[in-house]
Amino acid sequence: MSFDEVSITSALEQLALALGKADAVPRSELIRALERAAERLRTGGMTVERPHDLITQSEAARLVGVSRQAVHQWVQKGMVPAHRAGASGRNSPMVSLSEVLVTANRTTEAPFSRTLRQQFLQFLSLVGGLLDDRIVDGLTRQLDPGPSTRRREEASRVLREFVMAAMGTSSMQQEFTPAGVQMLADMRPRLPLDPDSSFGRLCEVLGLLVHSSRGEGGFDSAAIALMALLGAATVGASLDHPDAPTGRRLAEAAEEVWGEEWVGRMLDIAFHVEELAPTPLSRYTASLSYLGVNRFLRQAQSSGVSVSYARSPGLMLPECFYGEPVLADVLQDGTSHRRASERMWRFSPGMSPIAVRAMQNSEGNPFRPFTFDRAILDTSIHGVRRYCFSMQDTRVAFRKHVDELSGTQRSGYIELAVETLTQTLSCPLIELVAIERLPDFDWWKDHIIRSSSREIMLGLRNARARKVAHALLVQTTLLPDVVEAADNDSSLRDRLRIYVKNLEFGIVDDRYHDDLRRGVARPVKTATESLDESEARSRAEHEIEQLLAPPA
After folding, report:
1. What does the angle CA 35 – CA 36 – CA 41 come to, to the nearest 5 degrees?
2. What is the pLDDT of residues 269-308, one digit of tens each?
3. Which of 74, 160, 173, 330 has the smallest number of CB atoms closer than 10 Å to its CB?
4. Is 213 helix (H, G, I), strand (E, B) or coil?
5. How far is 262 from 342, CA to CA, in rounded Å?
6. 221, 279 contact by CB (below 8 A)
7. Over the Cα atoms of the chain, what is R_g?
8. Which of 155, 178, 156, 442 is nearest to 282 (CA)?
9. What is the pTM of this model?
10. Closest CA to 132 of 227, 198, 231, 223
11. Main-chain dihedrals φ then ψ at residue 22, nearest 5 degrees
12. Cα angle at 72 between 70 and 74, to 5 degrees?
């Protein structure tokens, strides 16, 4: 290595250090900028890309639901960047839909109202006799929470083990070291539950409980406990099971407090309770990972955008949209469940064995409808939902299911797929993208179920880790703690920082745009498109035909 090369390298390093030490640039911003530069140099992505969701200011105002004057003022104040419409620049400046959403949602975050708090306490008083006292007390205390330093330290150690294992290369990549699996299993539920109570037994059969190595079962946060109450009152109440009456009594109590809107109000409360004191890391079962999507997307509103990756997309596969027991009902009587009932989770008692078998699984889980009808397709959630799926995996699953059905049910299944996708494509602010080649659905995409600037959900695939949890919900504020956990080992700290960045929403979003730019991802619908039902159906029919087409 020549002297000039050494001096240039040293000079660049010293410049960065001097900027950081002098506080000329905030250290976190400096580190972030250097990492982004390194990533662009590594991938060759040096060109500055125009946002792919550019629209006029009036269109942005209409889609987001704010006034044109508000968007214009945000542009004038520099809160929303303006982009030239074309080379001539004679047209009015364009704006990015997602950037407008970020600004709009940051200025309109709803508080946890006093009325909703009182209703929540009224509900707890009505169901107190059905629940463990520790659950009721824990939920009540959550309204005025205090800091939990111990919980954060424990969470950072567990997540560090995930990142350490991921630092392997190629086939050596794994999810957790053996020590990490043990740490995950040793975490005690924040809200333990009496396993012999009726509610405890119902939650167990519904797959809503996480367990520690000490034998305790329960929930890692108050928001999860609330979602479990909702799960028992909906899917649990539909089961042909000795403890199903507990679920029905929970539903009756919720309806007494909130009327017909009780499901939406319970989802509202789960969101607000988590806002009071976000849990740094929570273990999720398969059932909880679908039941909790509404709360996740509500929190993602503050940044305006979320990105989801799926190998078994419910937006394409009816069994993953409805769940197996509801789909079996629909195919049996030939009616569209979505149109037949607002209570999309309900299934007939004869389907209970199918439901119980599917509780521990992902693809046909009975809580799947909460992901889609109640979350991704919920037009009251004002955020761009970028949903990416593996086309090859979807094609294999779709053809396999079609081949197993009789003639009448086969045509019903295909029509349901078209209906579901039509509904999705008709929904505003959803961006649907197909990743065509299986190798392009890489290791990180396979684990990042959902990502936003505030939270990331990691799906676990390893058999040992899955015995403990189906997924981990991580607050992104925890990520710096993982890097700091390297103590005085600067080399390890640098390596940890490189791998932790894969969990940052900025990097996930950059890779998403890079996939679009390079043609790795194929847009089925962009967030800026507004399709009427006939246009949406035509596009849906084309996509389903692609799934049925024989391999090239």
Report:
1. 100
2. 999 888 888 899 999 999 999 999 999 998 887 778 899 9
3. 173
4. coil
5. 12
6. yes
7. 24
8. 155
9. 0.81
10. 198
11. -85, 0
12. 70
